């Protein structure tokens, strides 16, 4: 937690991050099994809509190459899990957990995952924001 001081009152101001739901786009902006990129604060996020109507949000930055390309990956399933394959080196990630399911001979790395929801046709992500 970071505390700042209000110069006028010399009282500490709480600047700790809080978790809240942030609107990102309309559900109609997403196509089934096609990725879309969004910038939320400083985070590049890849959004995916599955055939089941579930929205998944993971980091758009490939942890192997550092390129912001995950939203351009190939969507599929593996053992019932929705997946995306990176267009760079073809590692496959579970969209629910961000876990690498096929590291293509490299050490397994994960994608960051954000909880996603749909409310009234708007896609929301649960994110930390500074108060």
Which characteristics define this entry?
mainly beta, Rieske Iron-sulfur Protein, 4-stranded antiparallel beta sheet, 50% strand
Task: Explain how this protein is built.
- Keywords: 2Fe-2S, Iron, Iron-sulfur, Metal-binding, Nitrate assimilation, Oxidoreductase.
- The protein has 131 residues and is mainly beta.
- It has a single domain (27-130), classed as Rieske [2Fe-2S] iron-sulphur domain (Rieske Iron-sulfur Protein).
- It is 0% helix and 50% strand.
- It is built from no helices and 13 strands.
- The protein has a four-stranded antiparallel β-sheet with strand order 4-5-6-11, with no helix packed on it. A four-stranded antiparallel β-sheet has the order 7-8-9-10, with no helix packed on it. Strands 3-13-12 form a three-stranded antiparallel β-sheet, with no helix packed on it.
- The radius of gyration is 17 Å and the shape is globular.
- The termini are close together.
- The mean pLDDT is 91.
**Global outline:** globular
Oligomer: single chain
CATH class: Mainly Beta
What's the architecture in CATH terms? 3-layer Sandwich
**End-to-end distance, in Å?**
11 Å
Mean of residue pLDDT values: 91
Described by strand count, sense and barrel closure, the largest sheet is: 4 strands, antiparallel
Helical content class: under 10%
Order of helices and strands: EEEEEEEEEEEEE
Which spans have pLDDT < 50 for at least 5 consecutive residues? none
What share of residues are in beta strands? over 45%
How many β-strand stretches?
13
CATH names the topology as Rieske Iron-sulfur Protein
């Amino acid at each position: 937690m970071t505390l700042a001081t209000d110069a006028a009152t010399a009282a500490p101001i709480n600047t700790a991050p809080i978790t809240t739901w942030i609107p990102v786009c309309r559900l109609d902006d997403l196509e089934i099994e096609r990725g879309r990129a969004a910038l939320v604060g400083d985070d590049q996020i890849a959004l995916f809509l599955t055939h089941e109507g579930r929205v998944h949000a993971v980091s758009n930055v490939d942890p192997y190459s550092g390129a912001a390309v995950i939203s351009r990956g190939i969507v599929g399933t593996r053992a019932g899990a929705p997946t995306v394959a990176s267009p760079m080196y073809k590692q496959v990630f579970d969209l629910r957990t961000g876990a690498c399911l096929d590291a293509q001979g490299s050490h397994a790395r994960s994608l960051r995952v954000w909880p996603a929801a749909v409310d009234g046709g708007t896609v929301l992500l649960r994110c930390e924001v500074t108060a």
